[in-house]
Amino acid sequence: MSARTKARKRALDILFQADVRGEDLGVILAAEAKRAASEPAREASWLYAREIVDGIIDQRDEIDEQITTFAKDWSLARMPAVDRALLRIGAWEILYNDAVPAAVAIDEAVELAKEFSTDDSGAFVHGVLGRISRAS
Prior knowledge:
78% of the residues lie in helices and 0% in strands. It is an all-alpha fold.
């Protein structure tokens, strides 16, 4: 598994945890940063995970607007928490990280959706991120 794949999983964990607990994303990120400081072997994945989460914090309104626009009849509140987090990660990569091709961002999000969410989540995440990618 590549460092970026691990970082996306780590970002998913952070976003999911904040969402489910109803805690501020910055608080969860700070706690994870403290933990990461004691794990130098995982530094590469931590740095990109932090970049993702910081980017989502900075661009959350725009990202959520894109997701809501292209989710066709699905509000953010109605989505499973894992799907919501993966859509935010994928949308951030598509819209704000030129170093990651949109196809890679979509494929990575879909694979994580298949692994950690519902049976229908992979197709749902693929559809929403594909529409965001085509519109950007």
